[in-house]
Structures are given as structure tokens and as C-alpha cells.
From TrEMBL:
Protein name: Alpha/beta hydrolase
This protein's UniProt keywords: Hydrolase
Annotated ranges, domain Serine aminopeptidase S33: 44-293
One protein family per Pfam: Hydrolase_4
Record's keyword annotation contains Hydrolase: yes
Molecular function terms from GO: hydrolase activity
InterPro entries the UniProt entry points to: AB_hydrolase_fold, Hydrolase_4, MAG_DAG_Lipase
SUPFAM superfamilies per the UniProt record, alphabetical: alpha/beta-Hydrolases (SSF53474)
Annotated source species: Hymenobacter rubripertinctus
Amino acid sequence: MKEAASPDPLGPAFQPLVLPQPPDYEGPVQAVLVRYLPPPTAPAAGAVLYVHGFNDYFFQREMAEQYAAHGYHFFALDLRKYGRALLPHQRPNNVRDLAEYFPDLDAALHQIRAAGHTRPVLSGHSTGGLITALYAARHPAGLAALVLNSPFLALNQPWLRRKVAAPLAGGLGRVLPNLPLPAGLPDTYGQSLHQAYRGEWEYDLAWKPNQVFGVNAGWLGAIRRGQRQVGQGLALPLPVLVLHAERSTGGRQWREAFRRADIVLNVADIRRLAPRLGPHVTLQAVPEAIHDVFLSVPEVRAAAYAALFRWLADQVGQATASPQ
């Protein structure tokens, strides 16, 4: 483990730590753990590890500030082949099994526990929500709770693509993992977020481009296998909060409605599949939220944070408390 050679893009309040991993089929691999350095400004409640989604990385300074204001030591993880962890020889998001991310999570949680946080909260957004749910199913004992923000539990595709094309392409992933596939996402979601377009957020468009990174058959096969595991039931014994938008919409031409709905996933799939995560799942729809509920317009994300910290206080309380 080593500190990154350069300051973190989010500034001196954030400390990146490189987590080297064994090489894979592309060569050297690393993940990067980011720690928010200012101590919590409320009584100690524990620690949280946040994991980003697809075509994404950690840039949400406000999220770190919110957790610190509610007593949590905040950490975020850029998974292998994303954001801070992406190396020049790698294809972004190129994995062949979602369990490839588990060593990244192991290494990050080892650092967090070494800092005195014995049972952290694990949180994931979208694809990160699917990954963290699968990880928690394998390692539930060391976690206090799981917080999922619009988890990617099903493909948002028309019936024919979902039932015929995707299984065929995903199956090819075992023999032709590098077969390129269209990601199938328009640039409208990115437009709704970045301040250079129609949004309010500043982030690196090289790490989170509007025209999303391409995918391959190996990635799709990994996603489908992970989603099948959820569909079969994970039986998570820990409390799980699933935040999601109240409604979904779509289209490739910009509409103002895109600012107040999920245009990436179908929230009906989230509502249908989330109960299969385990017996202690709380579903929380956030009116007028977008796909990443914590990037919604200010009053909507304020409501999402309020719901999150009410739930944590009720379900976790001081059980995860760690020394300041």
C-alpha cells in the first residue's frame, strides 16, 4: 500500500492510497482508496466505504462532507480500471467476473479496519451496488449495513434484447471476452450532470465521459451472472437500504424531465428485485431523484441524505462507533 505520488484531484482534504493487486490478463492492476481527512463533526458513528458505478469514479465531495457531518469517517474506492486506478495499458471497466473486484474491496476494508473501524458500512451506486451486494453476500460478518443507490440489478433493455441478444452476447463472453459491444447508453445522462452542459457537477470527463466507455462480451457476461445471483436470492443477514428514483423515463433527445427521473435504469426492476437481497431490506423511493440520487437537484438530494441518515441512525445507531 502506498500513498499516491500526486495530490488527489478533489484537493488536500482527500488522501488517495494506491492498493496494488496481482496482475491479470491485461497486466499490472491497482485500486485506489480515497480518505476524507477532516474528522467527523458529530459524535462518532463509524465509517463508510463508498463504491462508484459504471463509467464513473469517486468525485462527490458533498457526499464525504455529509457523512462527516453525521459522525462517519468517509472512504471511497476507485475500483480497478476506473478513475484514479486506471492504468495506461488497461481498457476501462474490463473485467470477466465481478468477483475480480473483491480483492479491491478486501484491500480497502483492510485499511479501514486497520484505522480502527471494525464494522464499516458498505455503500454502492449502480454497478457498484451490484458488486457490493455480491461482496456482502460472501463477507457479511464484517459489515454493519449495506446502502445501495439505484443498484444495477437488471438490464434496462427491451424484451428481445434482454431475453435473446444479451444472453447470447454474455455467453460469448466466456470464449470471446474481448468482443466489443455497444454500451447502449445515450449521452443525455452525462449532460444532465456536468456543469459544462446542463448540470451542476465538476468532474474529469476523461474518467467519466458523456459518451460512455465501450464494453465487451466478457463484461456483459459478468454482469448477467451477478444479476442472476441476485435473482436467485442473496439472503443477506445485515440491514440493507435501497434508495432509488420514484420513476424512470427515457429517450435520446434532451428533455427537462431528465433532471427529475432515472434515465439509466428501470426503477420497477429495482423494486422487484431488491427484496431478493435478503430479509432486512428497506426500499426508499426518492421523489424527483435521478439515477444517482445524490447527484439530483439540491432539494431532492437533501431529502435523500435525510432518509439515509435516519435509516442509519435507526438500523445501525452507535453499533459501528469508532474512536475519533
